[in-house]
Design a protein that fits this description.
By secondary structure, the protein is an all-beta fold. The chain has strands spanning 2-4, 13-21, 29-35, 40-42, 53-60. The strands form two sheets. It has a three-stranded antiparallel sheet, with no helix packed on it. Strands 1-4 form a two-stranded antiparallel ribbon. Strand 2 and strand 3 (29-35) form a beta hairpin. The protein is globular.
Length: 71
């Protein structure tokens, strides 16, 4: 599964956390943390036929978190 995103102001972002869940209303698990220059992530740990939900969340240099993206 290939995911991509864009940042409105990457200079204030320390990293991006990528989360995945199998059910929309269940807890999500962080599967990756990438630097602010990264705008794509390839999830290779998926099983064919399964449905997955994702969101990304940025973290700033003072550990402030953005609102999660739409799942």
């Amino acid at each position: 599964v290939s995911l991509s995103w864009s940042l409105s102001n990457p200079s204030v972002v320390r990293n991006i956390n990528v989360y995945r869940g199998q059910y929309f209303n269940q807890p999500f698990t962080r599967i990756a943390s990438v630097d602010s220059k990264t705008t794509v992530y390839e999830d290779k740990n998926v099983k064919a036929g399964n449905k997955y939900y994702y969101f990304v969340q940025s973290t700033g240099f003072l550990n402030e978190k953005s609102l999660p993206t739409v799942k």
